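Researcher: Quick sanity check before group meeting.
Model: Go ahead. Protein one:
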Amino acid sequence: MHLGAMVDLGVPLEYLQSELSRLSLGNEYDLVVQRDKKMGISGTKATVNIDQAAEPGHRHLPRIEKMIEAAGFNESIEDTAKKIFRVLAEAEAHVHGIGVNEVHFHEVGATDSIVDIVAAAIAIDYLKPNKIYCGPVELGSGMVKCAHGLMPVPAPATAEILKGVPTTRGRVSSEATTPTGAAILKTIVDEFSTPTSFVANTVAYGLGQKDFEIPNLLRASIGDNAVGINDFESEQNIEIEVNLDDMSPEAYEPLMAQLFRVGAKDVFLTPISMKKSRPGTKLSVLVDPELQNAILNILFSESTTLGARIHKVHKHMLKREQRKLITSFGELSVKIVTLPDGTTRWKSEHDHIARIAQESDVPYLRVKETIDAEIKSIIDNG
């Protein structure tokens, strides 16, 4: 489906076939690409037909990597293809409890998966998108037949690969995302979210082999972010919240300090009214998802809370840089941000000014006024 969508987006089939021929797979496969429809929606259907007699059997990761390296692809294609295979190998190794190089790929090492993965790398290199977004990944439901027997959807390798990725389930009564498809997405996607503002210039469809209750297709679009969106940096965080009404305010400072020490990006307090009109405080922690358990351990052991709420947060930030500027008080760190209209604004670092004021025995406000005037002069004069 991904291969079909890439051709539908405009990647020339002749170019794909020419690049794939570098793999020296001989007559192991035949790539058939044709126009077709799913529930009235037309798109491109790509099928990799395998010659079972010519296929040499399952390949392990080192052999596949050597095959890709020997093909003479450009650095981008080789790097992307190898990354996708390594994502697959690491997932299989984790599921089976073996080393990465010991993984016997089964379907993943078969010729059709090699073609799918390398073709994905070729297509992305050809299109050269600045950023790739993907909405929640549908996994399906029911059972799927794997090399080890019947398994519940998602297959174990798919579930392992898509840890930390937004997914949906149950829209179709079959497997909707394979380990190969999951590995391609996990490797090439920059951000698993739907852009809030996007101007699509091309819309394409890659058609699947199966027929589901809904159209079995992958939709891909090429376009531009709306004005201003490119001026933001984005990241996925989680926000952990607890309500506190029976803890001494003196305990907040050491708690917040400990949360920052383990990696919290922000910690803040909000006064709230709780049940029975009791005054309370909501403590909120913004943090990377992988630090969730560390933060929860601190909240449960160093505060009086009995429970916590966790929300996914998609954060947009102005582009920023830290610069070191020389002032009459010495070197100072300055944060400079770029606004959507291209102008900038800056802010001197409070901690640095406070330290200078203390060390020089000069009032804080006088130090800040002097330093800010010097910084403005330096920035205005380039």
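Researcher: Fine. The other one?
Model: Protein two, sequence then structure:
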Amino acid sequence: MTLASLHPVGGVDYPRTFRELEAWFPDEPACLDYLARLRWPTGFVCPRCGAKRAWQLSRGLCRCASCRKETSVTAGTIFAATRLPLKTWFAAAWYVTNQKLGVSALGLQHALGLGSYETAWSMLHKLRRAMVRPGRDKLSGEVEVDESYLGGVTPGKHGRGAEKKAIVTIAVEKRGRGMGRVRFARIRDTSGDSLLPAIEELIELGSVVSTDGHAGCTGVAGAGYMHDRHSLYASGDPAHVAMPRVHRVASLLKRWLLGTHQGAVRPQQLDYYLDEFTFRFNRRGSNHRGLLFYRLLEQAAQREHVPLAAIIGGRTL
């Protein structure tokens, strides 16, 4: 069968219920066809010669009609080199996106009947790596910014200056009295040399950046932003009153890490847990859980496979 065009008129649709999921993806060929549509949304393109026609072979391979190169549908996706059926991966993606507060590896193992905890753990980490797409839009408008410290309870200082904890910059769009999108960035310390690059990474130039009176934020205006500075000392307001949105997000994030994941987050993997929280928080108002499943698989089809050896390692926070 020729693959001159890989997606039907109107684009790729998505299942709305678990019953539809089972009907749509009864076997591996159905999953491969769907993944091909996601990987090549405007039609097949040969990675060698750029031709746009191919023949679909068995085992998930496509043969270019021009240069005859064979390309795997899963190559160049997070599913490359997997030993699990795509049907299992699709069920995992559905389960992950349909649990409002997320899932643990143990929960995924039980839900899918997987043979080992390690398999479920690996699947979750690979799916997390597809939850935030490269080149995403930055935050804009009015944005609250502050830092938070993530990690276990340790003796010593609290707040800025705490040791042995990960420091995360939190940026939250203001939407009236509510909140828009969130973004996170890990930083080395709370100096201006660390904070300003993080703000530039997360927020569009020209936006209004609201911060507390911390000295590390004094260069915000000079970096091309309008700086709305709240001095907690001068106002007498507690931090959660002056900066309610970032403090609310920080509280939700810590509760999520401790609740869903029991605080068992390794430092070198924290960024991907932040990606998952971002994915869930920014889509918290979605009424179509099937659309979240589609978005996750769409991004998974565009992200390179990460070997398990590159994921494993490190201590727990």
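Researcher: One line on it for the slide.
Model: The chain has a mean pLDDT of 87.
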